Task: inverse folding
């Protein structure tokens, strides 16, 4: 994977996440929602100037190598009005977005995509943004409830619908690098761990033309990786349907000589997946991950278990937060077990 460049800096803005909490403990390279809205021009603290949390995940990623800059959206989240409002309150100019990387075909990661495309086209023009997807994302999805009822999920935008809104759709499952090699958008993530077996209550079918069938593995899920010079890899796993251990295993297979500096996203360890928490915490240890920034579908029990094991290397993501990874800033000591206390200083 030599085509993945080493960037000088990576800045991550959390536009959509399940939680709004400006007081959540943050690593030193994070800026809180409160500080960001003040920088964006808010003149008072109010419900209108803060961001809206809702089930889903969406990030803006900005990279730099020398004077070359690139901007990409990693998913969008659930609902267009909330997404656009959050961008406005953080003074995020969607006209700067060059590409979008969609992780998988679930409404809570693609529901706001039409609104995002409209805003981008209004600023950049039609045909100016590429949306990276893969062919498996567009099945109809549903969940099997305990009483046997099948609860369908909202359909996600199709490639034709995206093109009608002015996007250039790249429907490729082969794992390309994006934007001059600043980003690696993965191919299929192999399911190799002994315990990450997905969810049997996830179902899919094609356009009502067949019966619902189990879809535990969600093989359409993708991850995104950025290599920050002097630090290592920052791995974005929006929902970890593949299993976060499988995600890290594939990352090391692709880039065996580069350390994993940070893993960021939803770890899919809430609810019925809580049974996997002890095995997941233990299995992550050999990767020596510098920071684990959990959000979206991780669940509070998993967050607490990870924090108890790895201490200050673990933190909770929240909407409105900005993370900056800069070359030349020392990476943390990758101890087997870190202290369990959290930083208590104010976050804004």
Result:
């Amino acid at each position: 994977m030599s085509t993945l460049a080493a960037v000088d800096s990576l800045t991550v803005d959390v536009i959509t996440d399940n939680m709004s909490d400006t007081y959540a403990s943050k690593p030193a390279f994070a800026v809180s929602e409160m500080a960001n809205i003040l920088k964006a021009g808010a003149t008072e603290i109010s419900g209108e100037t803060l961001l809206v949390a809702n089930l889903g995940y969406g990030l803006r990623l900005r990279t730099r190598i020398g004077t070359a800059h690139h901007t990409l959206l990693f998913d969008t989240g659930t609902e267009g009005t909330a997404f656009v409002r959050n961008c406005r309150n953080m003074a995020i100019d969607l006209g700067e977005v060059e590409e979008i990387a969609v992780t998988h075909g679930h409404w809570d990661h693609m529901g706001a995509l039409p609104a995002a495309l409209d805003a981008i086209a209004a600023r950049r023009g039609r045909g100016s943004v590429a949306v990276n997807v893969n062919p498996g994302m567009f099945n109809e999805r549903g969940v099997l409830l305990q009483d046997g009822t099948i609860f369908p999920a909202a359909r996600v935008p199709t490639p034709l619908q995206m093109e009608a809104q002015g996007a250039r759709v790249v429907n490729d499952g082969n794992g390309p690098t994006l934007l001059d090699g600043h980003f690696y958008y993965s191919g299929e993530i192999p399911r190799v761990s002994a315990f990450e077996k997905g969810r049997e209550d996830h179902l899919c079918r094609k356009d009502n033309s067949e019966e619902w069938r189990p879809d535990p593995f969600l093989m359409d899920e993708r991850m995104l990786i950025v290599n920050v010079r002097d630090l290592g890899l920052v791995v974005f796993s929006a929902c970890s349907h593949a299993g976060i251990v499988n995600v890290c295993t594939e990352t090391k297979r692709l880039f065996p000589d580069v350390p994993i500096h940070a893993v960021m996203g939803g770890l899919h360890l809430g609810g019925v997946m809580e049974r996997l928490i002890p095995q997941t915490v233990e299995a992550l240890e050999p990767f020596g991950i510098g920071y684990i920034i959990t959000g979206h579908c991780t669940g509070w029990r998993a967050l607490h278990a990870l924090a108890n094991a790895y201490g200050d290397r673990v933190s909770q993501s929240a909407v409105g937060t900005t993370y900056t990874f800069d070359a030349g800033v020392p990476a943390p000591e990758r101890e087997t077990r870190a202290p369990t206390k959290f930083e208590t200083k104010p976050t804004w």
